[in-house]
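Figure caption, in words: inputs first, then the predicted bound structure.
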Amino acid sequence: MKPALHAVAATLPALPLYTPAGNECALFEHAWKRRVPLLLKGPTGCGKTRFVAHMAARLGLPLFTVSCHDDLTAADLTGRYLLKGGETVWVDGPLTRAVREGGICYLDEVVEARKDVAVVLHPLADDRRVLPLERTGEELQAPPHFMLVVSYNPGYQSLLKALKPSTRQRFAAIEFGFLAPEQEIAVVAAESGLPSERVAPLVALAGRLRKLKGHDLEEGVSTRLLVYCASLISEGLSVRDAVLASLIEPLTDDADVKAALIEVASAVMG
Ligand SMILES: Nc1ncnc2c1ncn2[C@@H]1O[C@H](COP(=O)(O)OP(=O)(O)O)[C@@H](O)[C@H]1O
Ligand SMILES: [Mg+2]
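Bound structure (magnesium ion present):
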């Protein structure tokens, strides 16, 4: 039995702040109501995880987040038998818990996971909505308030690590990008405590550095890095040191590229 929304919401922490770029909040709500699984794509640090945390809190749903990595197997998601005090007991993994209890299961960077993960996701992400647990012989039917959300970064796509059409066509997808400058300034100021007028030049610099993506850089400056930079400045670090430590060093290890980025930063920041 699903608890009343307000009863759950009362026990949850404050709503994580999220500034929408478009209609993604409404889209998420519609998807949740109609049980459509969601795929969020976009560069690192652009707000995907924050968005899911915000929507889970807004809808009063428990959130089960799994950061996928290249060793993550289906058993890490579904569960396994563990030895406890001489007895073997079955312990649910996060996906199984979300299916049993209801809520959002969010698989971050899903392309990183091992191939066998697709086997458990497929019957869950189509109209069957079932999770077969081979080891226990159970087949769990997902309750109406279960939702599957996955994210990935198309920028890191390699041939080896692409989402297969049979997987991606089980999800409705939302593309995330960086916010418009005015919005991003407001977000970074709110997150870091640095006044907007001091954040504005950092966002302008990020805009310039993002244009270099694809030439010398694999990824542009994320909103996350801007929050770090503004927080360090707010804490008293000089702008020059904060920019170097949080907007330049994390982007590259190549001495020539770094020198070029420093030049861009000096030109923009003076
Ligand atoms: N739209 C947004 N609204 C509020 N904060 C945001 C937004 N986008 C990014 N942020 C900030 O950037 C940080 C990184 O975002 P995150 O959701 O972790 O990125 P992703 O999951 O896409 O890698 C967040 O912790 C938050 O401080
Ligand atoms: Mg994330």
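The longest helix spans residues 196-211.
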